[in-house]
Here is the input.
Amino acid sequence: KQNALASIAGIDGRAADEFVGRWFDDFLGGKVAPELRLDVVEAASKRAALKERVAKYEAGFDPKDDIAKWRACLAGGSVDEGRKIFLERAEVSCVRCHKINGEGGEVGPELGGIVTRQTRDYILQSIVHPNASIAAGFESALVTLKNNTTYAGVIKSDTAEELELNSPEDGPLKIKKADIKAREKGLSGMPEGFADQLTRVDLRNLVEFLASLK
Here is the structure.
């Protein structure tokens, strides 16, 4: 059904408009399975005849729901395609910062078994709004030294004498507290706008892959 919707979305003509329009009506009425919701929205978005209806749907997103725009990405993805994004997509470099069952980077939290600890909503929110909820133990800091050098990274250790950071740019750092001129709470190691490098289909595949990890 996903493939059929994608194929029909690219066919010219009134019949295709009406077909996709009926599916979009069912979607708005809550009658479409979660695994097909994104496919219906994507298909409707490609039809000029449905442009106004899609715009009205998007204008109705709850402003208090920070993942409303992406909720259709919560189910129906491909684990295999999501794995490729996580391990191979250079522009997002997920594996550079995150471990899966002990393998990968250390800047972000271990993601093996994340679905046993968090919901799919949380997984999606962490991708599209990484600063909304930073995982415990991965708080970061922005430090300016007395020589005006600045470093940013995840706090690995914080004692009376020394601050240890894991910086994506500079690697592990041990900074003497006596050398620090200023210290600010940092943002997530994953930048805002990260999700802009992925399509909604990519996001769905990535969520599906992460949710499959044991």
Q: What stands out?
A: The longest helix spans residues 14-28. The chain has a mean pLDDT of 92.
